Amino acid sequence: MSKKVKKEKSMIIQKEMIASLFKELSTAKETGKKVVYTFVPGNISELIRAFDMLPVYPEINALQSGMRKKSRDFIRDAEKIGHSEDVCTYVKCDVGMMINGNIGPTGEKIPDPDLLLLSYTGCFTFMKWFETLERLYPGVPVALLHTPYQEAQKITPEMTEYMVKQLKEEVIPKMEKVSGKKYDEEKLKKILVNTNKVEEYMVKIFETTKNKPSPIDAYFAGVYYIGPINIGFRGTEEAVHYYEELYKEILERVEKGLGPITPEGEMKEEKFRLVVEGPPNWTHFREFWKIFYDMGAVIVASSYTKVGGVYDNGFRVNPEKPLESLAKYCMNCYTNLNLEQRVDLLSDCITNYDADGFLVNSIKSCNSFSAGQLMIMQQLERKLEIPVGFVESDLVDPRYFSYSNIKNRLESFFQMLEQRKLILGN
Amino acid sequence: MNKYYLGIDLGSTTSKAIIIDENDKIIGRGITNTRANYLVATEIARLEAIYNARFSLLKMKLEDEIEDNPEYKKYIDDVESVFQYLQFKHRLDRLSVQFQDTIKSTFDDDKKEDLSAIVTKIVDTISPKIRHEFINSNLGSKNQFFRDIVSERYNNEVNKLHKKYFDPIMLIYDKSITPVENELTDFNFGKLVAKAMEILDKKYSSLADNERTTSSLKFDREINLLKGSYKEIYNSFKDHIGFVASMDIHIADMVGTGYGRALLPFPEKSIKSEILCHAFGAHAIFPNTKTVLDIGGQDTKAIQVDRHGLVTSFHMNDRCAAGCGRYLGYIADEFSISLNELGPLALEATNEVNICSTCTVFAAAEIRELLNIGRKRTDILAGLHRAIVMRAMSLLARSGGVRNEFTFTGGVARNQAVLKYVSELVHENYGDDITINIHTDSIFMGALGGAMFARRNSKK
Fold this sequence. Notes:
The complex is a heterodimer. Chain A is built from 18 helices and 10 strands. Chain A has helices spanning 9-26, 28-31, 45-50, 58-67, 71-80, 89-99, 125-136, 157-179, 185-207, 222-225, 227-230, 237-256, 285-295, 322-331, 339-352, 367-370, 373-384, 403-424, and strands at 35-37, 54-56, 115-120, 142-146, 261-262, 265-266, 272-277, 297-302, 357-363, 388-393. In chain A, the strands form 3 sheets. A 4-stranded parallel sheet of chain A has the order 2-1-3-4, sandwiched between helices. In chain A, α13 links the parallel β7 (272-277) and β8. Chain B folds into 3 domains: 1-61 and 250-286 and 443-460, Nucleotidyltransferase, domain 5, CATH 3.30.420.40; 62-246, no CATH class; 288-438, Nucleotidyltransferase, domain 5. In chain B, 60% of the residues lie in helices and 11% in strands. The radius of gyration of chain B is 23 Å and the shape is globular.
C-alpha cells in the first residue's frame, strides 16, 4: 500500500492560501504592504486586515521550523547569544530563525516588522518575547493589548470596556500611523461577517467527532484545520471557502462511516476516543501521531485547537459591534480561561464526545499551558472517573522528545483503557 | 493436567519470574540480576521459578503431613537451601576457572603465578564459609544474588592483602563476574535434590553426634525432631521428590512485562505494560489498594487504581533516575558496601543529615564532602534514604496523592530504611489513618500481575 498521503481538496486550498500569504510577505517591501508581528492567542487579524496590513506569527514560524527539523540549530544559535535552557523554545527557535536571515517555511524571506502587536493573552513570555524582538528590530513601534485574565470565570462589562479602550487609544492609533490609513469601521464589520461564518463552520467541523467512528482527528489533524484562522485568514473570503469545502468533505466521510485520514493511511478501526490537553510536539509530530494511529486512538477533542479562539460556549463575533467583539474574542481564548473554566470545558468535551480517556501532553518549556495541568487532570479523573494519562515532551526542542519514554507511557495508557473496556464493558 | 501461568518482569536491574496456579496462588519465584540479554535473563528467572515451584508443589502435596509434623517443613526448606547452595557452588566453580582465564589473558607472565595463587587462596577461604552459611544459616533465604554473596566476602579478603594487590585482584573479579553471571545452566532437578538430601543426611547425623558431646547447643524444636527422624523423612520423601522432579509443570500461558518486554518473542496479547501488572499484582495481594508506589531499578511509578484494580492514572519519573534502585547501588559503591547493608546502616543513624541534592552523580560529591567534614556514615546514609523517599513523595503528589490503602512494591521496598521513611512521610503528609501494605513478594508484584494476566488471557 502506498504511504503517500491522500490529499483532499481542502488540503490543497490550505496549501495555496499559505503559499500566497508567504509570497505576499516576501514581496511586502516592494509592494509597500506593512507587516505586523503578533501572537496566535487573541490574534485580532481582522483589524490588521482592515488596515490592509499583513500578519506574521512567530509561534507559527517556530512550529513550522520544528516540523521542518530546523529548530534544533535555531535553538542552539539562540542559546549561543544568551537565551537560557529554560526559555520557551518557540522564542528561541524564532530568535534563531531571525538571526539566520528570517527565512520562513516556504523558503522565502519574512520581512522585518513594521509593528509589533503584543496581544498579551495568558502567556507572560509574550512580553519578554517582544522585548527581545524590539531589540532585534530597533525603532519598530510596539502596541500592547493587555487582555485581562478571566479570574472570576466571567467577562465583566468593565473588562470589555478596558479592552475596547486599549484598542481605540493604543492599537488603532498605532496601526493608523504605521499603515498611513484611517481606521475604517465599515470595512472591519465586513471582515467580521466572514469571521462569523468561519466560526460557525469551525464549531460544526469539530462537532463531527461526535460520530462513531469520528471522521476526523481533532488534535493531529485539528492543528491543520485551525491553520487558516491562526495565520491571519479568519475574516477572509478564502477562509470561508476553505472551511466550507472542509466541512463538505468531512460530512462525506461521516456519510460513508469513514474514520480519520492520517499520514499512515486511513484509520480503520476506532478503538479509543480521547480528549487531549496541551500542544503537540512538533519535532516528532508524525512519530507521535503514529503511536496513536497504531493503537487505533482517535482524538475527539483537544484544548490546543481552541488556542486561537474558543467557540464551544456560544461565543461568536457580532459584526455590528466590531471592537467589542474583538475584545471578547481575545478574552475567550483558551489560555485566558481560568483553571476551573478549563476543567469545565474539557469535562464537557469528554462527556459530549463520549471519550474513553483524557491525556495531557505537557510541554517542558511552556509555562502558560503546563501550569495547572496536573490539577486539571486530577479533577477530571475524580469528577468523571475516567482514566487519565500524562506524557511530557516539548514544542520544538528535539532534545526533549524521548520516543521510548513517551511510547512506554502511552502503551501503558492504552492498555489501561483496553483493560477497563474489557472488565467494565461486559 | 494442572495448568500454570508464568509472568516475566524484565526490569532494568533484575528480571523476575512468577508461576501461579489456576487460583492465582504463587507457586514459584525466580529472580536474576544478570545483565546479559533479556532472553537469557528470562530463561534464568524462569528456570529458578520452576525449581521453586517444584518445592512449593512438594509442600502442597505433603500439606497434611506437614501440618501434623512441622519438622517436615523444616526439612523441605533445608533441602531447598542446600539445593540453592549446589547451584551457587556450580557458579563459584565456574568463577574460579574464569578467574584463572582472566589472569592468563590480562596480566604479564611474571605476575600470573603470584596472582593465581592469591585468587585461589581467596576462593579456598570463602568457599567453605559460604557453604557453612548456606547449610547452617539459611543464606539461601536472604534474597541475595550470586554477585552480592561473592563480592562481599571477596572484598573482605582483598582488604586483608597488601594494598599493591588491590587493583589487580579487583580487576580480576570485575572482569570475571559478569560472564559467569550471564551463563545459563539447566540443572537436573532430581539429581540436584538427591545430592542436597545426601548433604543434609550428613548434617543431621552430625547434629545427632554433636548433641551427645555438646550439651550447650540449643536447637529449635523442628531440629530436635528432625535429628531423631531425618532418616525416616528422607525415605518417605524420596518418592514424592522423585514424582515432583519429573512432573511436567505445564505453562499454559505467559505474559511479559517490564522494560525489556518489547524484546520478548511473545505475541502482542502477551506483552503488558508494567504499570498495569504492578497495579494488578498489588491489588490482588491487597484488594483495598488505591495507590501503589513502585520503586524499581530505574523507574519510580506512582499508580492510582480503582476498586477493580484498574489503573486510573500513573506517573513515572522522566529524564532522571535519581531516587531509584540504581541510585542505591551507586551509593553502595561509593561507600564500598553491599546493597543489603545500606538499609540497616541507615537505620543506625542518630543525627540524620540533610542531603540537598538528589542527583545521583552530585550526591556522590556531597557524600565525600560530608565525610570530609566528619559526618558519620550512618547519618549520611539516613539522609540519602530520606532523599530518595522525598522524590517518591513528589511523584505521588503529582499523581494525585496517597489514597487509602497504600501499597509499596518493587525491589527497593526490601530496604528497611526506605520503608521507615515511606511510612513516616506518608503518614505525615496524608494522615495516620493511611494503611501501608508491604509484602515479602513486593519485588515480584509486576511478574505476579503478568502471570495473572496470562491466566485471564488463556481463559478467553
